[in-house]
Design goal:
alpha+beta, Nucleotidyltransferase, domain 5, three-stranded antiparallel β-sheet, 7 helices, 31% helix, 23% strand, globular
Length: 225
């Protein structure tokens, strides 16, 4: 998998080959952090969800951040600095996460531009090996079969596109977001099945629009590249 940043507005995905989409085993994952700019922020929660044989298995862990959580992010995620005091270190939570996911293909939403580079940063910082699992970002999966759509394929966009009811989910909670991502993933996979597309194969660069950084995360002069 190769991700190339093209501009503030888009990136390119290539060198992805996942065959037999409907026959694979998947694990959905999501991170919460101290902020949305992965270069300067830290993971505060890891959530993961496996749905197999009509049964759900979940993983949920807070992660101690070396950086305080800003008040606005505390309010958004519900994760407080008080909870960070007794949260496990990243190395402990990460090892448990690796055991949980096994060799399954990982599924994320906007992960190519946030969760994956954030995890790479943490693995380098704590001198831990990066996961070997293949990773599917729903944004790229969706964009691949919808070249006619020019919108940013955000979670809110996909909720509206598929008319999903999210009233029973707490947004910006890593585990609840995994449940939502799972619903979206099921819808996209159904489109692949309906179109008789068996593989997710990207050999030529696929351009994907990046998420828009919310104003609450931006500071004047901040470099987000």
């Amino acid at each position: 998998m190769k991700i190339t940043l093209l501009s503030h507005e888009e990136y390119a995905v290539e060198d992805i080959c996942i065959t037999n989409l409907l026959g694979n085993r998947y694990c959905i994952f999501d991170f919460e952090g101290t902020g949305i700019i992965h270069q300067t922020e830290f993971i505060t929660q890891i959530g993961a969800l496996i749905v197999e044989n009509n049964m759900n298995r979940s993983f949920n862990s807070l992660v101690k951040s070396p950086k305080p959580i800003p008040p606005a992010v505390e309010e958004l995620t519900g994760i407080t600095n008080d909870e960070m005091v007794h949260a496990p270190l990243f190395s402990e939570a990460y090892h448990r996460f690796i055991e949980f996911i096994g060799d399954r293909i990982l599924v994320t939403q906007a992960g190519y531009e946030y969760d994956v580079p954030l995890l790479e940063k943490h693995c380098q910082l704590y001198r831990l090996p990066f996961i070997h699992n293949q990773i599917i970002d729903i944004k790229a999966l969706f964009t691949n079969i919808h070249p006619e759509i020019d919108d940013v394929v955000s979670t809110d966009f996909l909720i509206q596109y598929y008319s999903l009811d999210t009233s029973d989910l707490k947004r910006h909670d890593a585990l609840d977001d995994c449940m939502l991502i799972g619903q979206i993933f099921e819808k996209v996979m159904r489109e692949y099945e309906d179109q008789s597309i068996a593989d997710f194969r990207i050999t030529e660069p696929l351009k994907v629009k990046r998420f828009v950084i919310p104003a609450m995360y931006l500071e004047e002069g901040m470099n987000i590249e």
